[in-house]
Design a protein that fits this description.
Layout lengths: L1 E4 L2 E4 L10 H5 L2 E9 L2 E2 L2 H15 L7 H14 L5 E8 L17 E8 L2 H10 L1 E7 L14 H12 L4 E5 L5 E4 L3 E5 L5 E3 L10 H12 L4 E3 L4 H6 L2 E6 L3 E8 L2 E2 L7 H9 L8
Parallel strand pairs: 7-8, 7-14, 11-12
Antiparallel strand pairs: 1-2, 1-6, 3-4, 3-5, 5-6, 8-9, 10-11, 10-13, 13-14, 14-15
Bound molecules: pyridoxal-5'-phosphate (PLP).
Pyridoxal-5'-phosphate (PLP) binds next to helix 6 and strand 13.
Length: 283
């Protein structure tokens, strides 16, 4: 395996960044995770658009022109011979003497791009069985619409899930509404057959898969209502599922140990998952 680090392709085992990289010292950076399918990137454009937005909100310069970045992303896939898997991209504010304020003008942002293979059979098996989620209080900062590498609450939430035999954690805000998962957006299908997911805003990440599922839902003639939902509503829902580039559409069958929808994956999630890639863009 090889990894792109600031202009060079390095062997995976020996790829390094500087100890005073601001990503390392301050989590001062952003990232993207893009699905690779059949050797092609899924919705690359939407991911780079979101990257540009995250960077601009944090006033971190773009490390490369977008055309050059696209070449690096495709090279990561090609050089690592990834047919199905993920590309990971991280940009930080660069290397500078430790000081909370921004580094001197002209400091170059750091760019790391890696790619890894994932056997799609694992995801398909998980989707047939459905996953368990646990709920945790929302403790993240007020700008989680920025895809920042500062992920401590997400790390703790995911570990809490793991320790309870679950695959994902749902953050729940002070009013009892689910915001999103530790690394996914959260959805339910109500008894009326409506799809419900939280509207975008500073309190959730605008998931690319969330956007794709909106398109799929419209094409499938499903009604979508963007509003917050509670854990109780999810427990009483006909179906629940999560979306993320690494999960596509993943049915949720247990919440805090209680079965959702009889504890088996439902037809709506299956339909959305099956139709997903017909509505994604490949490059
Ligand atoms: N919400 C959070 C907190 C995430 O980390 C992710 C993805 O990792 C998502 C939502 C889903 O976003 P996407 O569909 O772009 O992968």
């Amino acid at each position: 395996r090889v990894v792109y680090v600031n202009g060079q392709w390095r062997p995976f085992r020996s790829a390094v960044v500087h100890v005073e990289d601001r990503g390392y010292q301050f989590a001062d950076g952003v990232y993207e995770v893009c699905e690779v399918r059949g050797g092609r990137l899924v919705d690359e454009r939407r991911h780079t658009d979101r990257l540009v937005r995250s960077l601009s909100e944090l006033r971190i310069p773009l490390p490369l022109p977008l055309s050059a970045l696209s070449v690096v992303l495709h090279e990561a896939v090609r050089r690592n011979r990834v047919r199905d898997g993920l590309v990971y991209l991280q940009v930080t504010r660069g290397v500078a003497r430790r000081d909370h304020g921004f580094p001197p003008p002209g400091t170059r942002p750091s760019l790391v791009v890696s790619a890894k293979r994932i056997d799609p059979a694992g995801g398909e098996a998980a989707a047939r069985a459905g996953i368990a989620v646990v709920t945790v209080p929302e403790t993240r900062w007020a700008r989680v619409d920025i895809k920042a590498i500062a992920l401590l609450p997400n790390v703790l939430a995911k570990q809490a899930a793991r320790e309870q035999g679950a695959r994902e954690a749902w953050f729940v805000d002070r009013d009892g509404f689910v915001t999103e998962g530790a690394s996914s957006n959260a959805w339910i299908v109500t008894d009326q057959g409506e799809l419900v997911t939280r509207p975008v805003g500073p309190d959730i990440l605008r998931g690319i898969s969330r956007e794709v599922v909106k398109t799929v839902a419209a094409a499938e003639g499903l009604t979508l209502v963007e509003r917050p939902f509670t854990v109780d509503e999810a427990l009483a829902a006909r179906e629940a599922f999560v979306t993320a580039a690494s999960q596509i559409v993943m049915p949720v069958v247990r919440i805090d140990g209680q079965p959702v929808a009889g504890g088996t994956p439902g037809p709506v999630a299956a339909r959305l998952r099956a139709a997903f890639h017909a509505h994604a863009e490949f490059s």
